[in-house]
Fold this sequence. Notes:
Largest sheet: 5 strands, parallel
Number of domains: 1
Strand order of the largest sheet: 2-6-1-7-8
Oligomer: single chain
Strand content: 5-15%
CATH class: Alpha Beta
Helix content: 40-55%
Distance between the termini: 9 Å
Number of strands: 8
Bound molecules: adenosine-5'-diphosphate, cytidine-5'-diphosphate
Number of helices: 9
CATH architecture: 3-Layer(aba) Sandwich
Amino acid sequence: MSKKISIAIDGPAAAGKSTIAKMVAKSLNYTYIDTGAMYRCVAYYALLKNVDVTDEQAVSMLLKDIDIRMFPDGTIQLNREDVTSAIRENEVSMGASVVSQYGAVRSFLVEKQREMAQGGGVILDGRDIGTVVLKDAELKIYQVASIECRALRRHKENLQRGIDSDLAAIQEEIAMRDQQDMTRAISPLKKADDAIEIDTSDMTLEEVVARVMQLVEERI
Ligand SMILES: Nc1ncnc2c1ncn2[C@@H]1O[C@H](COP(=O)(O)OP(=O)(O)O)[C@@H](O)[C@H]1O
Ligand SMILES: Nc1ccn([C@@H]2O[C@H](COP(=O)(O)OP(=O)(O)O)[C@@H](O)[C@H]2O)c(=O)n1
């Protein structure tokens, strides 16, 4: 029987991390954990409670009231309410990038992520998986694509979902988030020294999955 490893995928916004992670998890029969969704839940809850996301103390006080559950079919519940679609709103994306700067928020979520990842056979995507959450992951991927390509992908995804979308505004939003995520004091987004970079700009989904599966095969 092959070994059940841990896989970390990090990279900037809309690089295709979660799409690839889901496809690889399905093919390996691994558990996929979307850590970005957890930061989105914290921001969503702050917005719901009319708490200013830039108020670190007020946001940190909310953590004790936050119960996040993730189901194998991709459903995300916050305090038993289905927030799967609601957390994808633009305002929540920007809010997530703000609350993810706070130490209390990060330690609260990182602890949960490590608990969920116990035992291996998992694939986590986010910003700090290879550098912080799963420093010992057997496979670390740093997935990138040009900003134009990432903005266009997110734009197409929105249109497909029937959400209003403006390409220039999306590009501006993800550039702003990347800048914020890469320059924050705690666990900034960066490539782990032992991560393998994949630039997906000119690759199809199938090509990216094949590349990741090849790297997995070398490790199990
Ligand atoms: N070669 C590719 N690799 C990864 N994603 C791609 C590729 N081509 C198109 N996409 C699309 O890019 C979009 C954004 O991907 P997503 O997984 O949400 O990114 P992230 O999790 O990094 O924010 C998805 O609609 C996905 O289908
Ligand atoms: N492990 C993680 C995952 C997300 N995040 C934060 O959460 C935000 C939303 O993450 P996401 O992965 O859902 O975003 P997209 O790349 O899907 O647009 C990011 O912009 C980061 O600020 C983080 O700090 N650490």
